[in-house]
Amino acid sequence: MLQVEATALPEVRIITPKRFGDHRGFFSETYSRQAFAEAGITLDFVQDNHSLSAAVGTLRGLHFQAPPFAQDKLIRVPRGRILDVAVDIRASSPHFGKFVAVELSAENWRQMLVPVGFAHGFVTLEPDTEVIYKVSAPYAPEHDRGLAYDDPAIGIDWGLPAEWLTLSDKDRRHPRLAELPRYFA
């Protein structure tokens, strides 16, 4: 009951669960270990995270955790709309430094699977946007890392004017790709 789509980065996939609706609303199985395994995706998620961003232009990222606490992520949007971005930071990858950007929303019901070795971030495109994501390793502050959201070598177009973007101080200080240690060699 899943639609799985490839992206320009083969390891990053778009997953759309079926949604069944009637006059009462809808029902959707947003994650099933069995359905994912049948689609060839075998991950062991250990934690769910939920964020709310009040303003359009809230940019969170680009984040990842270094080994041994590296995380696969499965991101979805139950309310609102985001531009979701994954950047390949695996030094030996033919796609090193390349990214994919996909709109996820409550309306399109898409999810993005971001594997270990990718930095992840998103920007909100609607007010009061909620993002829920599963991770395959627990949060480990000592392994929490980031990549500059505005690195010109990567060239992400976040879809909004720069003056609309709201970031944490921490997210403004992440290194550029050329300065990033090779955590995923």
From TrEMBL:
Alphabetized InterPro entries for the sequence: RmlC-like (IPR000888), RmlC-like_jellyroll (IPR014710), RmlC_Cupin_sf (IPR011051)
Functional note: Catalyzes the epimerization of the C3' and C5'positions of dTDP-6-deoxy-D-xylo-4-hexulose, forming dTDP-6-deoxy-L-lyxo-4-hexulose.
Oligomer and partners: Homodimer.
Associated pathway: Carbohydrate biosynthesis; dTDP-L-rhamnose biosynthesis
Recorded family membership: Belongs to the dTDP-4-dehydrorhamnose 3,5-epimerase family.
Name of the molecule in the record: dTDP-4-dehydrorhamnose 3,5-epimerase
Record EC number: 5.1.3.13
Annotated organism of origin: Bosea massiliensis
